[in-house]
Specification:
This protein has a single domain, classed as Membrane associated eicosanoid/glutathione metabolism-like domain (Four Helix Bundle (Hemerythrin (Met), subunit A), Up-down Bundle), CATH 1.20.120. 80% of the residues lie in helices and 0% in strands. The protein has four helices and no strands. It has helices spanning 4-31, 41-69, 74-94, 103-128. It starts with a helix and ends with a helix. 28% of the residues are buried. The model has no long low-confidence stretch (mean pLDDT 95).
Length: 130
């Protein structure tokens, strides 16, 4: 099995991961901070943007690969993957310390949740043989 659909969405997610990682690393280098955020709000936001990506994406890609391996509906897989990528682009743009209800944060998080929900349903349907 090649996991063509999962791989298709993993590729842009790798790029997003690298952007988020290098933003944290660059700020750490500027501040000469190895661990923690040294009280710097910009570094703190960047750490959380990267951390939130790490909290969501690996599990979601595993769910996507499991659904794809179970011959899940291709259109539904693409919907889940598209929502995940778009959500991962929007979420860090809205993840601001001073605005917990930033519209981009809410939209990005909603897309992530919807992606996981779609994959959850696909996996249930696969287990039920539907």
């Amino acid at each position: 099995m090649t996991f063509a659909t999962t791989s298709f969405y993993a590729l842009p997610l790798i790029l997003i991961f690298l952007v988020l990682f290098f933003r944290v690393s660059a700020r750490r280098a500027d501040l000469k901070v190895s661990i923690g955020d040294a009280g710097d709000s910009i570094l703190h936001e960047r750490i959380r943007q990267h951390g939130n990506f790490i909290e969501w994406v690996p599990l979601t890609l595993i769910l996507m690969a499991l659904a794809e391996a179970s011959a899940a509906n291709s259109i539904a897989l693409h919907c889940a993957g598209g929502l995940l990528v778009l959500g991962r682009v929007l979420h860090p743009l809205g993840l601001k310390a001073g605005n917990a209800a930033h519209p981009l944060r809410m939209a990005g998080n909603s897309m992530n949740l919807l992606s996981v929900a779609i994959l959850f349903v696909l996996l249930i349907l696969a287990r039920l043989g539907a």
